[in-house]
Amino acid sequence: MHIRSPVKPMLATTIDRVPPPQACPGGCRYEPKFDGFRAVAMVDETGTVDLWSRRRVRFNDAFPEIVTAVGERLASGTVVDGEIVRWGPDGRLDFGALQRRNVAGRRRSELARAEPCHYIVFDVLESDGADLRPRPLRERRLVLEALLGAAPPGARVIGTPQTADVEEARLWFDALAAQGIEGLVVKDADGPYLEGRRRWWKVKRRITTEAVVGGVTGTRQAPESLILGRYDAGGRLRVIARTTPLAPAARTGLAAVLRHAEPDHPWPPELPAGFAGGPYGAHPPIRYVRTEPEVVVEFSGDAAVEGGRWRHAVRFIRIRTDLSPAQVPAFGEPP
Fold it and tell me: Domain ATP-dependent DNA ligase family profile, which positions (predicted)?
């Protein structure tokens, strides 16, 4: 048996547009980018399944139904890479359900029955004990399709769709957004599986919208990033996002219009990390400077919005002097 652990998943670099097929040396292959938990599943010679996160944390206790399904569908000596997802009752991907499962403790078995998940497999690293990493993607894909076969109704382990047709991929990019699909992953058909290397591309659907500046990291005179908010139905200013680092010109322009907050600013002096991107409790609290919530800015963000907040950092575009805070979309409304 060749299986070795742990595995460092192959990664992707973000690009802004869907590339043509000739952009990849061996021709491009396009797959939907699912919004879930990245996971590598390993089935050893005894049939024992281990499910590992991207950061090599064991997922077996959090997703027991996936462990069982992998053991039933994949033979011993198999290692595959994929994404754990949960489809909500509305047909959209529900990332919040995955987070609940990951921190549920004793309630995990209960949630596994109430909110069962799926494992979408997009690559095979080992099969029958043979190392497939050096082989081109086009060959690994054939092995994966043979391993999974036709998915029976209700299957919890399924293969991801893949196409070489860029026009079909662009249709996916537009049509699947309603299901919470983030965009596309683009891969070289001749490419090997390079653990830990960023040799794939990802293209994310982005939304342009507005928010109110409620604080900055750095200083008011030299802001490094913005903490953005929107008002909810009760008139409370709620945190929705944090921007990526600002360009020098943006820092200068914002410093000229931002004012230090009055004593009645609604936000605390520190914010939990999950209030402005990233999982709750994963990082130290965000230290920032509160500013008077009167400046409206335009930003672009991806489709990973959960509970009215963007999980990933957003990009500042410009100050909107033509808009007042009252004209910004309300918290929880569509962007």
Answer: 119-236
